[in-house]
Amino acid sequence: MFRNGLQQLSRRTISSSARRQVDNMVKEKQKLFQANNGIPVHLKGGAKDAILYRLTMALTVFGSGFVVYELLNAAMPKKA
């Protein structure tokens, strides 16, 4: 009895999970990224890629500036 119920549950779970089909977008993405349109590959993904790129560059510049500030602070300690 327990085994029968377990088989039905597993059958129902497996059959219902394959119901949603996902489109294969690989060919379209390959065309997009291989197009010779003068855009760097790290920006060809659209607005999301541009925002991520700018955010990364801003964090890098801020982090580098903060490191230089802290190094200068450590090199010239305040006199008591």
UniProtKB/TrEMBL annotation:
Q: How does it sit in the membrane?
A: Single-pass membrane protein
Extract the InterPro entries matched here: COX7a (IPR039297), Cyt_c_oxidase_su7a_sf (IPR036539), Cytc_oxidase_su7a_met (IPR003177)
Transmembrane segments annotated in the record for this chain:
51-72
Instruction: Kindly state which keywords UniProt assigns to this record, in alphabetical order.
Output: Acetylation, Membrane, Mitochondrion, Mitochondrion inner membrane, Oxidoreductase, Transit peptide, Transmembrane, Transmembrane helix
What CDD domains does the database record attribute to this sequence? Cyt_c_Oxidase_VIIa
Q: Which SUPFAM superfamilies match?
A: Mitochondrial cytochrome c oxidase subunit VIIa
Signal peptide interval: none
Name the GO cellular-component terms.
Answer: mitochondrial inner membrane; respiratory chain complex IV
GO BP of this protein: mitochondrial electron transport, cytochrome c to oxygen; mitochondrial respirasome assembly; regulation of oxidative phosphorylation
Question: Which superkingdom heads the taxonomic lineage of this protein's source?
Answer: Eukaryota
Question: According to its UniProt record, in which pathway does this protein act?
Answer: Energy metabolism; oxidative phosphorylation
- Region described as Disordered: 1-20
Q: Where in the cell is it found?
A: Mitochondrion inner membrane
The GO molecular function terms of this record are: oxidoreductase activity
User: Pfam families given for it?
Assistant: COX7a
Q: Compositional bias (Polar residues) at which positions? A: 1-19
Task: Say yes or no: keyword Transmembrane helix present.
Answer: yes
Q: State the family it belongs to.
A: Belongs to the cytochrome c oxidase VIIa family.
The family database entries (PANTHER family) matched by this protein are listed as: CYTOCHROME C OXIDASE POLYPEPTIDE 7A, CYTOCHROME C OXIDASE SUBUNIT 7A2, MITOCHONDRIAL
Protein name (Swiss-Prot/TrEMBL): Cytochrome c oxidase subunit 7A2, mitochondrial
Q: Which species does this protein come from?
A: Oncorhynchus tshawytscha (Chinook salmon)
Q: What is the lineage of its organism?
A: Eukaryota, Metazoa, Chordata, Craniata, Vertebrata
